[in-house]
Amino acid sequence: MQKIFLFIFFFIFIFSGASWAQELDEDSVGTSSLKTKQVEHWAVGLGMTQWNEEMRIAQGGVTVGSTANFSGMLVSIQKEFTRYRWGWNFGGLVGSGYANGGSDSGSANSYLKTKVSYSLLGASTRIFYRFSGRINFGTSFMIFNRIIEWPSEGSIQASSGKNPNILPVIDLNVRVFNTWELYQGIGPVANGATFWKIGMNYRF
User: Fold this and answer.
1) pLDDT at 109
2) How many Cα neighbours within 13 Å face the side chain of 168?
């Protein structure tokens, strides 16, 4: 899955590079009146997400570490404000998907679960710089809780991660049509793990 995300991320960056030569939109032309004009709109997004968490597997007072991998879909809605080159937004997000965790060591106390469903609820805020009317680069701050219950297996109990999760995300938006834009972001979750998000936003 990470290879797919990397390929899409790379493709979008190549595509955005070809868009640098496009003319600026009306609200990014360098006139003094437009520099002070504030533009507002809403955006609804649908994206794919992936990240890893540390997993704890406990049995008989002994706890061992492993890794849980989360992947799924995320729906978001944002209110966005732009003023010439700079912009910011805030919004909420909800998602769901599946997680895989544990390992199969072949011993009696091994623990491995696949396709365990989870749900996610959170909020985000973003500040960005507009290179043109179609391309902007910024930083988002996300906070979210994910809800998952790892099945017990006999005397083995498992858990992963923590709530809430707070993380910065470096992101890039490329408007490919008047009302549609590609979004891609990456940021650290915890302990070296990486959060990925790639999707489409509809502006209105």
Assistant:
1) 67
2) 5
CB 48 within 8 A of CB 73: yes
Is the separation of the CB atoms in 97 and 69 below 8 Å?
no
Start-end of H helices in the chain:
2-18, 32-35
Pairing mode, strands 165-175 and 157-160: unpaired
Which pair of tokens denotes residue 77? 């809605």
DSSP class of 28: G
Backbone Cα Rg of the chain: 20
Residue 23: both structure tokens together:
């003319």
Q: Which residues contact 57 (CB under 8 A, 6 or more apart)?
A: 63, 64, 65, 66, 102, 111, 156, 157, 158
Q: To the nearest whole number, what is the mean pLDDT of the chain?
A: 85
> Does residue 127 carry a pLDDT above 50?
yes
What span, in angstroms and rounded, lies between the C-alpha atoms of 158 and 152?
A: 7
CA distance 110 to 5: 30
